[in-house]
Automatic annotation (TrEMBL):
Belongs to the binding-protein-dependent transport system permease family. CysTW subfamily. One of its GO terms (cellular component) is plasma membrane. This is ABC transporter permease. It is found in: Cell membrane. It comes from Paludibaculum fermentans. One of its GO terms (biological process) is transmembrane transport.
Length: 252
């Protein structure tokens, strides 16, 4: 068993990461097909020269940045409130958005937006995508920050209040600095999830609010295109670095 366990772990990791390695290898292949013809960065140059990809990337970055900022603020305050006042039903309900299938969440949000916008005469666009992303990112922030708060000594806040600080001052000057690693970790996780989302985004996006995953999916459906390999490799490396940074901050 001791000899088989490392072999099994290696096989599982290879199964998980070998497709990504193949993707990265063929992103620097000069051929359009899965036949190695030589090293080339032509597909990376093509990706950076594609105006549609550039616009979609800008949309994805804007949506992820705004959604992450909003989710980090709202989620931190929610986590602090749940930590102060035990509410097991509300806490458990946070997990509902984590286990709900994305297609169900997307259809629900689309129905909500259509019902509300019927009275406001507003159409789908970047604003609806941002609202949708905030809705599912908040749960991740709350869970990460709440886990950190459960290791925090509540008597520190009480001591600050006894020394004359208001509850808000105690939160800002005592609790918040101790929460910063967890907040940053949760924000990086939320950014990754928001940037990568396709199903919910495709449901609530307007005609002028295509994101990078939507464009990549449309390109891939038209046939093999090495540009997809190049941009996907960049995404994997960038988001992988953010996830590693998130895990390091979560442990600190």
């Amino acid at each position: 068993m001791k000899r088989m366990l490392p072999l099994a772990a290696t096989a599982i990791y290879a199964f998980l990461h070998l497709p990504l390695l193949v993707l990265a290898v063929f992103s620097v292949n000069s051929s359009r097909f899965t036949l190695w013809e030589g090293f080339s960065l032509r597909w990376y140059r093509a990706a950076f020269e594609d105006q549609q990809l550039i616009e979609a990337t800008a949309n994805s970055l804007l949506i992820a940045a705004v959604a992450t900022a909003a989710a980090a603020v709202i989620g931190t305050l929610c986590a602090h409130a749940l930590w102060k006042k035990d509410a097991p039903i509300i806490t458990m309900s946070l997990s509902l958005s984590l286990v709900t299938p994305e297609i169900v969440a997307g259809i629900s949000l689309l129905a909500l937006f259509q019902w509300i916008f019927r009275f406001l005469n507003i159409h789908l666009g970047l604003h609806t995508v941002i609202l949708a992303h905030v809705s599912f990112c908040i749960s991740f922030v709350v869970i990460v920050v709440l886990a950190r708060l459960r290791t925090f000594d509540n008597s520190l806040e009480e001591a600050a209040v006894d020394l004359g600080a208001t509850e808000w001052q105690a939160f800002c000057h005592v609790t918040l600095p101790n929460l910063m690693p967890a907040i940053v970790s949760a924000a990086l996780l939320a950014f990754t999830i928001s940037f990568d989302d396709y199903v919910i985004t495709s449901m609530v996006a307007g005609v002028d609010s295509e994101t990078l995953p939507m464009v990549l999916y449309a390109i891939a459906r038209r046939g093999a295109n090495p540009v997809v390999n190049a941009i996907s490799t960049i995404i994997v490396l960038a988001l992988g670095a953010m996830i590693l940074a998130s895990e390091r901050l979560k442990e600190s």
